[in-house]
Write a structure and sequence with these properties.
The chain has 141 residues and is of the alpha+beta class. It has a domain at 1-88: Rossmann fold (3-Layer(aba) Sandwich). Helix content is 23%, strand content 22%. It contains three helices and four strands; from the N terminus they run E-E-H-E-E-H-H. Helix 2 (111-121) packs across helix 3. The N and C termini lie far apart (41 Å). Keywords: ATP-binding, Nucleotide-binding, Transport.
Length: 141
């Protein structure tokens, strides 16, 4: 994944508007038991507030890995990702990505904490209420 769509503000790093999302020369790598895999190489694009943006490509080209980095789950080995001008350095409630995989739960959190995360991130429940609701549903499992 290393392409720019010429003339399109969403993928043109020379765009002059204030980008909602800016991906600047981002390279991403991850380790398998056999080797280090470079998933993306120096990817750059911007997404403006009114844009709709689609990542399209064959299996294994780095789409999901890039979305994980935008979500704050993977740190780029090169380049920078900024959301509303702030560097993305960790997962946060200001961005949510849904995958068809099951490795997105933060492994450092307990099951209860992972269930509570979405409830607290929505801002609709206080911590005690979120904990009670999480325990209620975990008791059913």
């Amino acid at each position: 994944m290393n392409a720019l769509l010429q003339g399109h503000a969403a993928s043109n790093p020379t765009s002059t508007g204030t980008a909602l999302l800016s991906v600047d020369n981002v390279s991403l790598e991850y380790r398998t038991p056999q080797r280090v895999v470079r998933a993306t190489h120096q990817v750059s694009f911007e997404v403006d507030p009114a844009d709709r943006f689609v990542l399209l490509g064959p299996s294994g080209c780095g789409k999901s890995t890039l979305l994980k980095a935008i979500g704050g789950f993977i740190t780029p080995c090169e380049g920078e990702i900024r959301l509303q001008g702030q560097t993305v350095s960790a997962p946060g409630p200001d961005r949510i990505v849904v995958f068809q995989e099951f490795d997105q739960l933060p492994p450092w959190k307990t099951v209860k904490q992972n269930v509570m995360f979405a409830l607290l991130a929505s801002g609709t429940l206080k911590r005690r209420e979120a904990e009670e609701r999480a325990l209620h549903y975990l008791d059913k499992v």
